[in-house]
Design brief:
Elements (H helix, E strand, L loop, with lengths): L1 H16 L4 H4 L12 H5 L6 H15 L8 H14 L2 H17 L3 H17 L3 H17 L3 H17 L5 H17 L3 H14 L7 H16 L3 H17 L3 H17 L3 H17 L3 H17 L3 H31 L4 H96 L4 H30 L5 H15 L6 E6 L1 H4 L5 H21 L5 E9 L2 E8 L14 H11 L3 E6 L4 E8 L1
Parallel strand pairs: 1-2
Antiparallel strand pairs: 2-3, 3-5, 4-5
Helix pairs in contact: 1-6, 1-8, 1-10, 4-5, 5-6, 6-7, 6-8, 7-8, 8-9, 8-10, 9-10, 10-11, 10-12, 11-12, 12-13, 12-14, 13-14, 14-15, 14-16, 15-16, 16-17, 17-18, 18-19, 20-22, 22-23
Length: 608
């Protein structure tokens, strides 16, 4: 997906760089105009010439997406007036808009010329924001036409210029970092792209363009996948979907769905891949993003094939082939017709031959499609009978499953009630006794403070234990992916406030397992207790490393800190370690502690 979707991103970069008018001049944002009053606004009597230039650029920006054929005259008018009065800033804005129009028309050499003119005007105006935008545009054009060395040099100049702007041009600086990183991603140089994207992420809080957080987050997910962090990559792409959906950025959201679908398909989760591909196809079609739609259609076909639906797979494959063929013939015909004005009679004959070949190919494909439909109709009648038989068998299976589930639910609630009584009840009793001691036995302030701290710690443990029990009650059907998501969220809630960095990873083999509900709940409860112990006892530690892997058919959870100095064989205080071992043994697993030269670790292996 990465190589095939990157061509859209260059278009995004140039559209953002071509934002004209006051957005680049530093005089405020553009204001929308009713279409019937645009010309009257630009022609308003008594308007200063510099203001008239800005009004013409604002009219261009208001029309470029709604009525693109009507927009270019306003740019030409702004350019003519700006050159006549020597208004360099307005001249640079106009050149930038013309460069964007030439890029959209695939006239890259002409677009590069306009960006060079924009650079000269911006430098004469001493406008750092426009100067940086010109460098960035020249870089994109140079890379797009194969002049990579100049392109990378221009990117560096653009980034340095935006960083020196007053106020600092965060939007354009992030966009430049993204463009450069995107070049490295597109050429499989992900190690070079990673630091650039992370720098862009650090600057995102200062940005105001909604496209930037979505595009940068998609690129960050690619880097995380390259660094063998599939869970983090999935989280990044899911965040890109949320941000892009909120901003109605259908093209970027469709791309993020494609990456998620491809990741799920690689993890052998075709049902999730199918859902992501369907969303990607719908959004790409709505935003008329043909390339992204084709990629998501291809992913959809692969997911359906993995789910055992070969008929749908073949249909989508043929649809993609037909679409590619039609587009190729249309492009070839358009090119040949454009050349016909300058060629001889022999070339005209070649055009007619090409058109005949296209019609013949279309007729052949239509005949093939009709034959295929007839075959599908025959297979469908046979499948209908098999479906009825399968439905009856499935009903019998679900009825037996419901009886087993009812028995299991009763046992589960009985166990949870026992946990609530034994664990939470004991902690509440300690709270009561400690409260009575504070009230009835006055002590020095230092001793009183120590008692209050013990009371506070006991209260927190009781609340945490209560939350664990309640979560276990509501998560009686929880599966491993949901538990892993809760584990990741809990780590980021607990460790960073205590000054501990999080290193969380799960292997692909472990993610593919489907343990029973009791193992999932026990895994989560042991994990929470281990994090609590790290926060409480790992003095001087800076990081907690969490790994979930598969070892000899068992799910093994490892939680280690890097506290300095030799660690004790076990850590004093409370019954947390004993409780963890008892929980592991209750489901047929085992738990041991690892005391190393630096740090302390807990390893729990449960039936997978």
């Amino acid at each position: 997906m990465a190589l095939r979707l990157c061509s859209y991103r260059l278009g995004l970069a140039l559209l953002l760089l071509a934002r004209p008018g006051r957005a680049q001049s530093g005089s405020g944002g553009t204001r929308p105009f009713p279409f019937d009053s645009l010309r009257a606004t630009v022609r308003k009597a008594g308007l200063p010439d510099t203001e008239r230039v800005f009004k013409a650029m604002e009219a261009y920006q208001a029309l470029i997406y709604a009525r693109p054929d009507s927009a270019p005259p306003y740019v030409q008018e702004a350019l003519s007036l700006a050159r006549r009065i020597g208004f360099r800033r307005g001249e640079a804005n106009a050149y930038g808009a013309l460069a964007g129009l030439e890029y959209q028309a695939h006239r890259y050499a002409r677009a590069q010329q306009y960006y060079q003119l924009m650079l000269g005007a911006a430098q004469k105006a001493h406008h750092t924001g426009l100067t940086g935008s010109a460098y960035a545009g020249m870089a994109s054009m140079a890379v797009n036409t194969g002049n990579v060395a100049d392109g990378l040099r221009y990117y560096g100049q653009a980034r340095a210029t935006f960083a020196k702007a007053h106020p600092r041009g965060y939007n354009n600086e992030v966009l430049t970092l993204y463009n450069l990183a995107n070049y490295y991603l597109n050429h499989q140089q992900k190690a070079a792209a990673a630091p650039l994207l992370r720098q862009a992420v650090a600057l995102l809080p200062h940005c105001t363009w909604p496209e930037l957080p979505v595009a940068v987050t998609i690129g960050l997910g690619q880097i995380q996948q390259y660094q063998h962090q599939p869970d983090s990559a999935v989280a990044s792409w899911q965040r890109a979907v949320r941000l892009g959906s909120a901003a109605h950025l259908d093209q970027l959201v469709a791309e993020a769905h494609g990456y998620l679908g491809a990741r799920y398909l690689a993890q052998h989760r075709p049902a999730l891949a199918l859902a992501e591909a369907q969303m990607g196809v719908a959004l790409a079609r709505r935003s008329q993003s043909n390339e992204i739609e084709v990629e998501n259609l291809d992913l959809l076909a692969e997911a359906m094939h993995a789910l055992g639906q070969p008929a749908a797979y073949d249909t989508l494959r043929r649809l993609q082939a037909l679409s590619d063929t039609v587009h190729a013939h249309e492009n070839t015909a358009a090119l040949t017709q454009a050349q016909a004005r300058f060629n001889d009679v022999e070339q005209q004959a070649q055009i007619r031959s090409l058109q005949q070949d296209r019609r013949l190919a279309a007729q052949t494909q239509e005949l093939t499609r009709l034959r295929y439909r007839q075959q599908v109709a025959g297979v469908s009648s046979l499948a209908g009978g098999l479906l009825l038989l399968a439905g009856w068998a499935f009903w019998q299976y679900r009825r037996r499953q419901a009886l087993r589930q009812a028995t299991y639910d009763t046992a589960l609630r009985t166990r949870l009630a026992a946990d609530l009584h034994d664990d939470v009840g004991a902690l509440l009793t300690q709270i009561s006794l400690q409260s009575d001691l504070l009230r009835e036995a006055p002590a020095a302030p230092e001793a009183t403070l120590a008692r209050l701290e013990r009371l506070s710690d006991t209260s927190r443990r009781a609340a945490r234990q209560m939350a664990d029990v309640v979560w276990g009650l509501h998560a009686s059907s929880a599966e491993l992916p949901e538990v892993v998501m809760h584990m990741r969220e809990h780590a980021h809630e607990v460790l960073p406030p205590a000054g501990l960095a999080v290193d969380f990873a799960i292997t692909a083999e472990a993610a593919a397992r489907n343990p029973n509900v009791a193992v999932c709940q026990t895994l989560y409860l042991i994990y929470k207790e281990a994090l609590h112990n790290a926060v409480k006892h790992a003095r001087g530690a800076s990081q907690v490393t969490i790994r979930l892997s598969l070892d000899a058919g068992q799910l093994c959870l490892s939680v280690r800190d890097n506290a300095p100095g030799p660690a004790p064989a076990s850590r004093p205080g409370g019954h947390g370690l004993t409780n963890m071992r008892q929980r592991a043994e209750a489901v047929g697993g085992a738990l041991h502690f690892v005391a190393e030269a630096t740090g302390f670790g807990v390893v729990a292996c449960l039936p997978g």
